[in-house]
Design goal:
- By secondary structure, this protein is α/β, with parallel strands linked by helices.
- It folds into four domains: 3-163, Rossmann fold (3-Layer(aba) Sandwich); 185-360, Rossmann fold; 395-615, Aminopeptidase, CATH 3.40.630.30; 626-711, no CATH class.
- The relative contact order is 0.07.
Length: 712
Amino acid sequence: MQTLEWLQQRQRQLQANRHRTLCILQGDARAAWRLIQPICEQHKTLILVPVFDDADSAWHFADHSNLKHQLGSEYQHAVLDLNHGIHANSLGIISGLLQAGGILFVIAPPDWPEIANPLDQRFLNSPVQPHDCEPWFYRQLANVWQEQAIWLTQSDTKWQIKNTLDFSASEQAQQEHFSNGAATTEQNRAISKILKVAFGHSKRPLVLSADRGRGKSAALGLAAVQALLQGKQHIAISASLPEQTRSAFSVAQQWLQNSDDTEHLNIQKNQISFKYQNETKLLKFYAPDALLLNKIDCDLLLIDEAAQIPTPLLTSLLQNYHRTVFSTTLHGYEGSGRGFELRFTKTLNQLTPDWKRLHLKQPLRWNANDPLEQAINHSLLLDAENRITDEQPNLNEIEIRALKGAERMAYLPQLFALLVKAHYQTSPNDLQQLLNAPNQLLVALYQEQVVGVLLSQSEGGLRPEWLAENPNIHGHLVPQLLNRQYAYKDALSLQSWRLMRIAIEPEWQNVGIGSQLIKAWQDSARSQQIDFISSSFGASNDLIRFWLRQNMQPLHLGCKRDKASGSYNLVVYQALNNNTESLQQVAQQFYQQLPYLLSDELKQLPNDQLALIQQAKPQSLELIRDEDCLKITRQYLNLQRPFTTSGIFISQLWLSHCEMQLSEGVQNLLNDKLLKKMDWQELAKSYDLTGKKQAEQAFREHLKQLCQALEK
């Protein structure tokens, strides 16, 4: 039997079973494409990164950067070419887009998995390149897929079956039909519970969870329609991306189009309106932040993929909207649903103790025991669990160990499961970074069980001659921040470590395991003669207290709230030798600038966080010297640092020399910005300028006149 005929027979079996599968084609990419082209061209197929320039333009193409926008779409097949590399998140997304009977074709080079992944570059600090890293992520995929995928290898011009799967007939799921549009008993139960949120007591939200393909989003759309038909007027639906609500809108539209009782059905992008019993009904999408900026008068709020929305934002929505359903995927491309549930449960218990939970298990879009779902979940560890004993550990029995290479792989399921629990935005890409990026991994083990993990990355250490030849630097988060914000270029040359993640088993927190990990990390840094260590995180009271207890000091506070945490980002550091005297000057400048920012861009900083940051202020805060003010002002004028870290010094310079004979226009503008502390928009309005950019440009030109006058 020819290979193509064999594949077509497998596809027919998949369709009969309502299953999907993964098929690896290891060999020449053009030969692989020629083999599967007859299968793909007969169906709606998604091509991730065009396989060849001459591929049929009528097919659907996407790349890794815009793949999220395919959410809610469905395809029969998909093709992924590993010659172009892969993001782990993309694997998860694609698997959720395929219909029952579909095949995910993965084209792999002959020497895969022992090759570099070019898309690892996003995780690497210059000058490290993907070929400098061992391909542990590819090895993880291959290790799972050799048992859970069809695998064909090319030999000369023929394809050999290296591995196949059992395609025996599966037990067919009974498709049910309910008057509300539900297709499964669980879906029907979900719709009933959503309606109870809409019509029952307020402040009793529902958390609806499921793996992909269980009809969770469809249940939201069907429940929205039923709520409108039963008396509600306006239902809001939200998600981090509009595309994530596509399925909900699609099933709502389909149900309404088949109904004889509704009139004037009006379908627009991200909203549906119709008339029922002479009343206008509306289902409309709203972005999460828009729901808070403009309080929407809605009868019910449905939030899909809630795990991707920052917890502080979800908390605000919970407080402002008293009939809310939070829907989340547990094992999906974002891989964060379990962590979301663990953390948001605490908020729900505190604010709405009568909240309810429902988990959907029965697949809808494909049958149970789907081979593709199993291959993706196992390879990306979306179903990994960290099972530990209930007893509290004796800290003297905790072993701190650095894991590398194969030993890291041995503990991988436990490690990743713990990271998912601890950080609500942990995604498959984090698994890829954990395995492939050069980083230091410390674990806390109790009887060979992972109870804590610390992940850090080396930064800086760049030679001056390399910096001179390579102005575009990738990565090095804290050194680059110090260079951009404080004109502290030496930070790029100093050797530093930045802590990226620390996670402790939730039941075993607050007993000292985190402090043990930090101390081991600090001791290791000193032994390797690292100049300083740092961490950057969304500031909260607990985290600030924790880091101050570890003898880490505040170094910089961002003026914009972090999109992930909804908090201001705080950078803390600890100097480990005498090479960092100028770094301590940066800390001085941060505290000198802080009062100015508190009257401007940090007005919303919580007072309890400010009090904690102030407690760590250097004991002897230096007076602002005139020569420092002039130096920093010149750095600002030369675009070496922004106004947010320069304002107090520029203001001090102007206060010291405001008696100078400058034109009235120059004096007025400098007074308005530096003494009256007008923001850029106010300044633009006062001087008939078009916006912030033009206002700051005018301010720089006037400030130059002051500096020129001082130099005479």
